[in-house]
Specification:
Blueprint (H helix, E strand, L loop, with lengths): L10 E11 L4 E6 L7 E6 L13 E6 L8 E7 L1
Parallel strand pairs: 3-5
Antiparallel strand pairs: 1-2, 1-4, 2-3, 4-5
Amino acid sequence: MSFEGGMEEMRVRKAILKSFNSGNYTATIQLSGSYKAYLEGVAVAREIPAAEMALGRKLAVIFFDEHNPKEAVVVAVYT
């Protein structure tokens, strides 16, 4: 997805929630199709209630820089 005005491309990926830290609102996630690698410390949008962050839930994650998980944010939880 590209935007006008000089913004860089971002990518939306599916993932599974492996753990959630409600204190700092970060998650450990497993990207769909990646069975061994987890990303830790991924930011979670504050609009998502902590009660929705149950282990095993499906997630939508936006990557602003696909090579840097610190530039990602969980934006949705779905079933």
